[in-house]
Amino acid sequence: MPPLQERNMPFHSYMDIALAEAHAAAARGEVPVGAVIAGADGVIAQAGNRTRELNDPTAHAEMLVIRAACAALGQERLTGYDLYVTLEPCPMCAAAISNARIARLYYGAGDPKSGGVAQGPRVFAHPQCHHRPEVYDGIAAQAAEQLLIDFFVARR
Amino acid sequence: MPPLQERNMPFHSYMDIALAEAHAAAARGEVPVGAVIAGADGVIAQAGNRTRELNDPTAHAEMLVIRAACAALGQERLTGYDLYVTLEPCPMCAAAISNARIARLYYGAGDPKSGGVAQGPRVFAHPQCHHRPEVYDGIAAQAAEQLLIDFFVARR
After folding, report:
1. What residues in chain A have per-residue pLDDT under 70?
2. Distance between CA atoms of B99 and A33, rounded to whole angstroms?
3. Are B116 and B139 spatial neighbours (Cβ–Cβ below 8 Å)?
4. What is the average pLDDT across B75-103?
5. Which of A41, A105, B7, B140 has the fewest CB atoms within 10 Å, measured from its CB?
6. Residue A154 burial by CB count (10 A; 0-12/13-18/19+): exposed, middle or buried?
7. Nearest-neighbour CA in chain B from A122: distance (Å)
8. pLDDT at site A9
9. Whole-number Å distance between alpha carbons of B26 and B151
10. What is the pLDDT of chain A when averaged over all its residues?
11. CB B99 to CB A58 under 8 A?
12. Which of A65, A76, A122 to mutate to test the interface with B (most CBs of B within 10 A)?
């Protein structure tokens, strides 16, 4: 696929959908993180965090959206597809993004506490990482971060 | 829970069940990795790798067994439970083991190519890691490794 600029890809629209998924997660009492997988033909899958609802510590938005996209496409890899997520992926999700062969990762807010892309294990930075997506950070970061702040302030 | 020695825990028996799950995975045409979660009362869940069958790059044995154990117990965390797996977990599974608050991780063969515990991102080694299990490696490592070698030789 041609790079972002040439495709004139509406990545802010995709991040808006991810933000809507994060809002919906907050309304369910879940930590507000949302994710979208899109290809040349648009959105393939979208999901929000459901760890509490599903009693599943692996049910982060990125994991659910990868599983949903693979199910929709009937394939084990998402080569050429892009993932949009409102928060920097944790190490589990970063490694799943690599395993799924996602082409490009767009994320919103950085996560100094639990992020695994730009800090901590920096999953894509090791020679053992078999596939590295292109990474674009800070997309709609302020909206994503405010959503998290509002959620945790309300919970106190 | 008291440490392993005091409980006289039959960890070789649990690893035998994990090896049986790995054998079953190979018979399904999946990379042969198997996992078990056990607590003071014995096995809670067991699973083998199903990435191909499920078209799901996240369906590693460890992820499936964590999800199954959480579902069986109706809880999001596995505090006090132990995970047995025939191969060193990848970064995705290592981070999931941390997220699930697994008490002890027993694994068989090391995985220089894709492991995330003793090499590469070393997921548990970072200050950002919120929960570190006790790690015991090399349990029935030769049997686990031979199973992988036989599988990949047969596939050539």
Report:
1. 1-11
2. 16
3. no
4. 98
5. A41
6. exposed
7. 7
8. 53
9. 7
10. 93
11. yes
12. A76
Contact present, A69 and A46 (Cβ < 8 Å): no
Q: Quick one: which H or E segment has residue B154?
A: helix B141-155
The pair phi, psi for residue A91, each rounded to 5°, is -60, -35
CA distance B120 to B101: 21
Cβ-based contacts of A99 with chain B (< 8 Å): 57-58, 90, 92
Nearest-CA residue of chain A relative to B122?
A121
Task: List the catalytic residue out of A62, A88, A134, A145.
Answer: A62
| Cα B60 to Cα A27, B90, B114, distances in angstroms | 31, 9, 13
DSSP result, chain A: ---HHHHT--HHHHHHHHHHHHHHHHHTTS---EEEEEETTEEEEEEE--TTTTT-TT--HHHHHHHHHHHHHT-S--TT-EEEEEEPPPHHHHHHHHHTT-SEEEEEE--TTT-SSSSTT-GGGSTT-S---EEE--TTHHHHHHHHHHHHHHH-
Active-site annotation holds for B53? no
- The whole-number pLDDT of residue A5 equals 44
Predicted local distance difference test score (pLDDT) of residue B8? 47
